[in-house]
C-alpha cells in the first residue's frame, strides 16, 4: 500500500474475493491498512474457487516476505511457504 510502502502479493486463488470490514470513525492511512490486515486475518474473507466452483471463506495468513512485501495466503499455502522458507515472519492480527 502506498501509505506504508508495503506491497501485498495475494495468492491467486483468493485474489477474486471480498473482505468485509468497516469502521464508524474516520481512519488515517495507517489505521486503514491495519483495519484491512485485521479483516483479512479475522473476518473470514470470501472468494470464489474456480476449481470446484464454490465460494470459500476462511481467515487468511499474512507472511512478511521482506521489508516491503507481505504475502496474503490461505492457511494451507502459508504452511507450505513456511516449511520451504522458515525465515518468513508471521504477521499477527
Walk me through this protein's architecture.
This protein has 93 residues and is of the alpha+beta class. Helices cover 26% and strands 29% of the residues. A 4-stranded mixed β-sheet has the order 1-6-5-7. Strands 2-3-4 form a 3-stranded antiparallel β-sheet, with no helix packed on it. The longest helix has 14 residues. It is globular, with a radius of gyration of 14 Å. The protein starts with 6 loop residues before the first strand and ends with a strand. The model has no long low-confidence stretch (mean pLDDT 88).
Describe the SSE topology.
Elements lengths: L6 E4 L6 E2 L10 H14 L3 E4 L4 E4 L3 E6 L2 E5 L1 H10 L4 E2 L3
Parallel strand pairs: 1-6
Antiparallel strand pairs: 2-3, 3-4, 5-6, 5-7
Radius of gyration: 14 Å
Q: Overall 3D geometry?
A: globular
Biggest pleated sheet: 4 strands, mixed
Helicity level, as a percent range?
25-40%
Distance between the termini: 17 Å
Number of strands: 7
Tally of DSSP helical segments: 2
Instruction: Sketch the topology as an H/E string, one letter per element.
Output: EEHEEEEHE
Uncertain segments of ≥5 residues (pLDDT<50)? none
The secondary structure category is alpha+beta
Mean residue pLDDT: 88
Q: Which band does the percent of strand residues land in?
A: 25-35%
Spatial strand order of the main sheet: 1-6-5-7
Amino acid at each position: 500500500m502506498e501509505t506504508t510502502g508495503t506491497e501485498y502479493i495475494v495468492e491467486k486463488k483468493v485474489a477474486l474475493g471480498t473482505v468485509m470490514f468497516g469502521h464508524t470513525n474516520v481512519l488515517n492511512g495507517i489505521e486503514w491498512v491495519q483495519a484491512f490486515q485485521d479483516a483479512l486475518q479475522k473476518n473470514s474473507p470470501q472468494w470464489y474457487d474456480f476449481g470446484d466452483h464454490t465460494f470459500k471463506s476462511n481467515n487468511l495468513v499474512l507472511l512478511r516476505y521482506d521489508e516491503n512485501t507481505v504475502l496474503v495466503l490461505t492457511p494451507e499455502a502459508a504452511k507450505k511457504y513456511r516449511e520451504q522458507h522458515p525465515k518468513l515472519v508471521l504477521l499477527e492480527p
